[in-house]
Amino acid sequence: MADVEKKETVIIGAGPGGYVAAIRASELGQKVTLIEKSDTLGGVCLNVGCVPSKALIQAGHRFQEANDASTYGITTQPATIDFKKTQDWKQKKVVDRMTSGVKMLLNKHKVEIIQGEAVLDSDTQLRVMPVGPQQFMSTNTGTTIQFDNLIIASGSHPIEIPGFKFEGRVVDSTGGLNLPEIPKEFVVIGGGYVGTELAGAYANLGSHVTIIEGLPSILAGFSKDMVSVVLKSLKKKGVDVVTSATAKKAVQDDQSVSVTYEVDGKETTVKADYCMVTVGRRPNTDDLGLEYTKVKLDDHGIVQTDEQGRTDSPHIFAIGDIASGPALAHKAFFQGKVAAGAIAGKNTANDYIGVPGVCFTDPEMAVVGMTQAQAKDKGVEVATAKFPFAGNARAVSLDEAEGFVRLIYTKDDKTILGGEVVGPGASDLIAELSLAVNGRMNVEDIALTIHPHPTLSEPIQEAADVALGFPTHI
């Protein structure tokens, strides 16, 4: 009979939600054991998702800047790129640095790390099964663990669609980030966050990219006028965008892949070096042994929880991609802190209305809070105020004056309910609007806050001035 070890707080998964939950639980005085089946820490985000994709996007921007230098009176030789060096930089200088930092933080907080696959036997017990060579310090896999509290942060995996098996030249987002070469022709199935970001990155690196999207528009969920700004940029880069299309099949050989799609009953086949499929992700809840617990799933495999992340089994919590709310790393960060706090007896709760969403397109897009349509559905009368980056000196001096900031606020007392930014630095600017939404601030609070000049932050203040009826620079 296997040995039984008793643990206080156990966490399954060392991605953004899991490792942050481990650190916070340790800070709150709990003895924490973190179980991770991969041979590295940080989950999809740090290893094959959010972070390396931004590195690739940055490389694309640098390459384009070098090629466009003549615009600013700078004469250079035509830029060339050694993609192997680019990939090495992305892995060694970005990914490895960040994941080693996570391990250092966990060690600092005395978190026990076990490499293995956790499978639940009951609401209070799990087994840790070995998954290969041990990369971490602990080697006690194959044992049974009884826990006082459990946080599940097992993440998600890419969805595979019929006719597009992930192999060879048909890749998921992980494969798309780690291509051995810059494709001359690149097909992207799915025009959501990930697909559009990487389509833009490879277009900047010199690829001819075709995006195939099933819906009438790419980047569903963003306002039409925001998407139009990004579409204009994509078309300028030579990206072909096909919408209302059904991806039918991919046929490949050693040299290329032929992708067939259908629009209005007519089939078209395009030939490419690689095809990347990014049509969404499914939560990793199938192989956890949840059927032996009181934990309940919805029809999409999402764990049902209360506002603290607690499941129907009172001592089991779920966070991150397997839990409700958007599948975003920063949401997982917060959920991890809330769950750890709940275990420690803190009166904490998740509130998803203030969770910002960011798409690192060119230009960037970011949103937070309610849209006009969502407010209308709730019976709230709202107004909007918009200010273009074309009226901002810093954006003009950066030669990045496309896009705008929009505030969504109540008509009666001008409380800010939501914000939208498309333009330079949107991923950073949305933080101010997130604070405004979470703090239930009104437009006057923004208008009376002095923003430094010349900076990209000023359009937020200018939009507030528009809302108050006293615009300055338009």
From TrEMBL:
Disulfide bonds join 45-50. It catalyses: N(6)-[(R)-dihydrolipoyl]-L-lysyl-[protein] + NAD(+) = N(6)-[(R)-lipoyl]-L-lysyl-[protein] + NADH + H(+). Its cofactor is FAD. Binds 1 FAD per subunit. Pfam families: Pyr_redox_2, Pyr_redox_dim. The keyword Flavoprotein applies. NAD(+) binds at residues 190-197, 213, 280. It comes from the Bacteria. InterPro entries: Class-I_Pyr_Nuc-Dis_Oxidored, FAD/NAD-bd_sf, FAD/NAD-binding_dom, FAD/NAD-linked_Rdtase_dimer_sf, Lipoamide_DH, Pyr_nuc-diS_OxRdtase, Pyr_nucl-diS_OxRdtase_dimer, Pyr_OxRdtase_I_AS. Keywords: Disulfide bond, FAD, Flavoprotein, NAD, Nucleotide-binding, Oxidoreductase, Redox-active center. Its EC number is 1.8.1.4. The keyword Disulfide bond applies. GO terms for molecular function: dihydrolipoyl dehydrogenase (NADH) activity; flavin adenine dinucleotide binding. FAD binds at residues 54, 321. GO terms for biological process: 2-oxoglutarate metabolic process. Coiled coil: none annotated. The active site is at residue 453. Residues 8-336 form the FAD/NAD(P)-binding domain. Residues 355-464 form the Pyridine nucleotide-disulphide oxidoreductase dimerisation domain. The active site is a redox-active disulfide bond. PANTHER family: DIHYDROLIPOYL DEHYDROGENASE (PTHR22912:SF160), DISULFIDE OXIDOREDUCTASE (PTHR22912). Belongs to the class-I pyridine nucleotide-disulfide oxidoreductase family. This is Dihydrolipoyl dehydrogenase. It comes from Lentilactobacillus diolivorans DSM 14421.
